[in-house]
């Protein structure tokens, strides 16, 4: 695999990953975090559609094979956008198994998950992202029920830390619901060795890529 250097600034340099060697990167402050986010999003959006499809299928199959998914009563999943790991097959599998599926809708600075019974329950919302219709029922934890959440993001590290998209929606939502198991779905190219986190950053419980699950 050919490697090339990508420079964020004179202090932050990283190389495209070889198969299992993580990118070397340190996010020192919020300004640099924005730069790192922009660089990785650009890399992700440049992925060919067929590569996105193939890698997404492998990632979703890894999640399907976990006991966490098999035992979950509810699935909180994002609707993929602009090259994100595609979640459609996992959502369909959840419906097939009789699980309740909830997807996010943003209102102002808050995000809630709403139940959908099919993709027909979606409409175009903020930033052109598909969201559940307003009449869909909001997620509420049921007594004795287990819930699994699938997290998107721009960059993740080996310690399962996450850099999102800058809005803090997922951090705020799951800060109040730490009992929900969180699996981050990412391409291997989005994994770095270490991210310097802020106090409000919430890590994933697990991370899965097309190559591994940890």
Automatic annotation (TrEMBL):
Which residues of this UniProt protein bind ATP? 33-37, 162-170
Q: Where does substrate bind?
A: 79, 84
So what does this thing catalyse?
A: (6S)-5-formyl-5,6,7,8-tetrahydrofolate + ATP = (6R)-5,10-methenyltetrahydrofolate + ADP + phosphate
Gene Ontology biological process terms in this record: folic acid-containing compound biosynthetic process; tetrahydrofolate interconversion
The record, for InterPro entries, names: FTHF_cligase, FTHF_cligase-like_sf, NagB/RpiA_transferase-like
Pfam families registered for this protein in UniProt: 5-FTHF_cyc-lig
Please provide the record's keywords in A-Z order. Answer: ATP-binding, Ligase, Magnesium, Metal-binding, Nucleotide-binding
What's the domain of life for this entry?
A: Bacteria
GO molecular function ontology, one term from the record = ATP binding
For activity, the cofactor(s) needed are: Mg(2+)
Listed EC numbers: 6.3.3.2
Instruction: Supply the NCBIfam families for this chain.
Output: MTHFS_bact
- What family does the Swiss-Prot or TrEMBL record give for this protein? Belongs to the 5-formyltetrahydrofolate cyclo-ligase family.
Put simply, this protein is called 5-formyltetrahydrofolate cyclo-ligase
């Amino acid at each position: 695999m050919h490697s090339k250097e990508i420079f964020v600034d004179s202090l932050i340099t990283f190389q495209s990953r070889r198969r299992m060697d993580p990118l070397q990167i340190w996010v020192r402050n919020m300004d640099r975090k924005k730069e790192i986010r922009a660089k990785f999003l650009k890399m992700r959006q440049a992925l060919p559609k067929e590569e996105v499809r193939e890698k997404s299928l492998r990632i979703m199959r890894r999640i399907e094979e976990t006991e966490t998914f098999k035992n979950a009563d509810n699935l909180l999943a994002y609707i993929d956008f602009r090259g994100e790991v595609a979640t459609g097959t996992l959502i369909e599998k959840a419906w097939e198994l009789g699980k309740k599926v909830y997807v996010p809708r943003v209102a102002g600075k808050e995000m809630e998950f709403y139940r959908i019974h099919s993709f027909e329950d979606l409409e175009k919302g903020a930033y052109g992202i598909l969201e559940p219709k307003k009449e869909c029922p909001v997620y509420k934890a049921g007594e004795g029920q287990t819930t699994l959440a699938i997290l998107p993001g721009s960059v993740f590290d080996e310690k399962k830390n996450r850099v999102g998209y800058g809005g803090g929606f997922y951090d705020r939502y799951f800060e109040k619901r730490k009992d929900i198991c969180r699996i981050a779905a990412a391409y291997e190219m989005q994994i770095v060795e270490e991210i310097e986190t802020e106090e409000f950053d919430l890590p994933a419980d697990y991370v899965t890529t097309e190559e591994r699950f940890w």
